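Would you kindly consider the sequence and fold I have copied below?
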Amino acid sequence: MPMPQRAYVTNRTDEVFAAAHALADQLGHEDTTPLHLTLGMLLEEGNMAAQIILYSCRVPRVTLQQELTARVPAPGTPRPPRDAPMWSASDEQMLAMAAAEARELGDEHLGCEHLLLAFLRDSATGPGEVLAGHGVSVERVQRDVRRIHDGTMVWAGPAT
């Protein structure tokens, strides 16, 4: 079920948030976290963040999924899927962090790449720590995003 549309959030980012909410519900977690969102990015494989992590930085998908999943809190009682997912306070916080990254890059819309940058900048997030262990840095992701935007780097295709 898609998230309510926001004019400044890309469709792929909406899909990633919906996947993160579905995962949190399935695991019985009260809220979505950067871990849920990063796992959602890997599921919705066409987004720029997944492309950069898997292709440019060459982090193996299975390894990354295992390392992120190992940090997800223990499952609770699964909740039934919501009729209509709503943006939560933690979603708003993650969007605000991503908005700062988008502004720094001069981007008008929030994409998964901005969320990835926000998670990398905050080493307290599980994804930031896991990805840093694979050599993924803010500087490298910013460079790749700029290269994709200016056409000097081409997406490799759907991440596998």
